[in-house]
């Protein structure tokens, strides 16, 4: 048996963050992970994170993973890959299978950061090849550069379903529909909007009735359901698809904790260990952090990991009580900022009608994925002006403020609370730098201007598809719902290292469409 000071099980955002925090205090840390590369879900996440600068907002997930690995290496953290922990026993003993060998370790402290696994839903034909989890599709695309399919139906409108749907289109797949049994979209409205303006229809209060095919998926039939989740006869809709992606939630992977006899709690976030804010469980020296302790965003998991790492350092005598309390307070404040707004844990399952500012929410956004042309004007991000100015179509209280820090001219304001709705400041002077458009994690900011003499206007949109449009190219402006509404000519295409992969495409449209055109499609690609 080999002795270790601190063992972390799982090299994802929570596990690596905990390892770094503990190592910073002088703790000797060993991390075991069953995968061939560390980073957990981070290296599958090519989208930009929400939050504030301290939460690594506007940085893409895989870049955050690279930064965590660099920090871990600098702090001397030992990371052992292709190492599956197969047992956690009394007195903080674990068994790890590395290759064909089983190794036995005993630690002074152990953190379980094993994350979560995808849920599945049963329907006729659900075992056919071609029915896959959204996370599996993300792995195929973003790690192995393999298209999961050509024509795909997504089941689930939470953030995972929305984000992966968008990434499927970036990979060249056609997403024929996004389906959810719930009557309202479950994820961020800004994620839904960028999917909707690409022309993907949403079918809420619908679910899959049957996956069709004998050797693999050849098609799918969905149907509307009633309040008791029973199919409504005559509402069936058929789609020719070769792939069905399922994004119906995650379940914490708590098997190791249960094996050791840790006290568990049955919560809305799953069957999770009963632990305090630092991740300390009912067994002294055993900690839990990240999705294994309750499903949240990766930003929250990283902070939870840091809290656990600091708690372990104190438990092992490397940090004083005062140092622990000071760092804990700092991290709790950071985590608390992410747990505010409409999507806070306290609001799970609630049907909210208004924003924190008292503005009526867009029912169209919640039910169809896009905000109505008449609805946008009641939000503080909307502004009508001839000269170039930002229009912010972020209409929900989500924790994010990169737009405010990106604009050096004070055109955008959020204030001290990062879940407040962004405001397009009147009488401010926009210099058309585009930093707000590129920095918006939800791709919800557009630069708009008008030229009454020519009878045209310009709309600058965020664009993350290849190939990029070319200056002078003719095409069409698409509405928020993805419908072709006007002719459009590409006037500018801007790329920059500071934009981090988001191109800024400026299209010229008839003056009456500057408040409606929100996406561009080349003429021979338009629907």
UniProtKB/TrEMBL annotation:
Protein's UniProt keywords contain Signal: no
Keywords of the record: Oxidoreductase
Residue span, 4Fe-4S ferredoxin-type domain: 421-450
Pfam families: Pyr_redox_2 (PF07992)
UniProt cross-references to PROSITE patterns, sorted A to Z: 4FE4S_FER_2 (PS51379)
GO function terms (MF aspect): oxidoreductase activity
Secreted among keywords: no
Protein name: NAD(P)-binding protein
Lineage, top ranks: Bacteria, Bacillati, Bacillota, Clostridia, Lachnospirales
